[in-house]
Design goal:
Length: about 170
């Protein structure tokens, strides 16, 4: 895959994911992005499930394409973040088999997302993301906000890192 096309995938992956959670969150009445996790937007039986699942799948498909242009361990962690996102989409909350597969896939995604900037030499972004995502696991009135901030920090890193590839 040409490096330029891979970099565009690195930009499109988080744009698709963030757009899906923002639009779906606005469509679902009584949903609080501050209090609730993003996965609630893709829960079985929820009207926003198709939109949120498509955002997860887009991220899951595009992140691995971008990972092919990266060097070192970041290549593996970005790939794992994409695969983890596909797992989250394939195992939604409320599925007949229970929530454990979803929780495992989300955990893999969290770790891979926080590790990606760290493995690329940006420890501060990785540490901040990891701390925020860890905080989002606690029962708190700001769980959703912490999750969005933790993922958003890495999503922003994806875009900035991919833009650097486009320029260089």
């Amino acid at each position: 895959m040409p490096r330029r096309l891979a970099a565009l995938a690195g930009i499109a992956a988080p744009v698709c994911f963030v757009t899906a959670w923002a639009v779906a969150g606005e469509q679902l009445r009584q949903y609080s992005p501050v209090r609730e996790h993003i996965s609630e937007l893709a829960r079985v039986g929820v009207e926003t499930r198709p939109l949120m699942t498509s955002g997860m799948v887009a991220f899951g498909a595009l992140a691995p394409l971008w990972s092919r242009s990266l060097q070192g361990p970041a290549r593996t962690t970005v790939l794992a973040a994409g695969v983890g996102s596909l797992g989250v989409a394939a195992a939604p909350l409320g599925a007949s088999w229970g929530d454990t597969p979803h929780v495992v896939a989300a955990g893999v995604t969290y770790v891979a997302m926080a590790a990606s900037p760290t493995m690329d030499g940006n420890r501060a972004v990785g540490a901040l993301s990891g701390a925020l995502l860890l905080g989002s696991l606690a029962d708190s009135p700001v769980t959703g906000l912490l999750q969005r901030a933790g993922l958003g920090v890495v999503d922003a890193w994806f875009v900035v890192r991919a833009l650097k590839q486009l320029r260089g």
